[in-house]
Amino acid sequence: MSDTFQQALHATLPMLQKIQQGIKPAPKGSTAALKKLCEAARANPPKPRMPRSPTTLAEDPGSPPAPASGKWTMASLRKAVLACEKCPHLVRSRTQVVFGLGNPEADLMFVGEAPGADEDEQGEPFVGKAGQLLTKIIQAMGFERSDIYIANVLKCRPDMPAGESGNRKPKPAEMATCLPWLGEQIELVRPKVIVALGATATEGLLGDTSPMRDLRGRWLEFRGTPVMVTYHPAYLLRNQSLSEKRKVWEDMLLALEKLGKRITPKQRAFFTKAAA
Ligand code: SF4
Question: How much is the pTM?
Fold first, then answer.
């Protein structure tokens, strides 16, 4: 069943049911026909909405208004995001907005889900233990942190219930509200490859809620830019097995290949039994 037909079916079915209920006696055959449509609708629930691709941000109704000059620069975008108050509950709880940082002309961009407590305090993405591991991954790829660009889908730390510490996952609605800012950042950096870190970041960026085992290791796309999904470094801190580290490394090898970077035999063998 095509996506268009699926959407049309879900949009019109409630209306058809109302019409049928309003006609007395019900037209012959309509009950059976509606029953069949209901079964088809149940068997084909609507798919989650994916971002349009490719899209110029000027056409995107979700985009923040461009500055008076008509074009964002990284400095004007940063200024606007730091002053953003679209989510009052996060404005109340945040220490500061975590805009993102790195090379504004990077070929490679990492996208996480949201700042945690450390990032909220320091104003930089990926500075806690998971961030330190991300730095090691970046260096194993042959880069320095300053070579690449790092940002989150959500720019403000998700608030925690009073008296609770730790971090919580951002909600889909929160990420959808903030996504236009990330879209503008990506539009400015124009990376050749985006690496999405973890299922939550992938949901925020691509609207795809598939499990990680189905997402990682293959190329997806955000408005025409190739996206490789891999596990969040925090997952690797919890699961330190060679096989999980190797999965992330295989995703990074694919990213390096896409970037046209030379890969040494030593790099190819990282996290295999031969290299251990
Ligand atoms: S999370 Fe994003 S959209 Fe919400 S207030 Fe912070 S910067 Fe603005």
Answer: 0.78
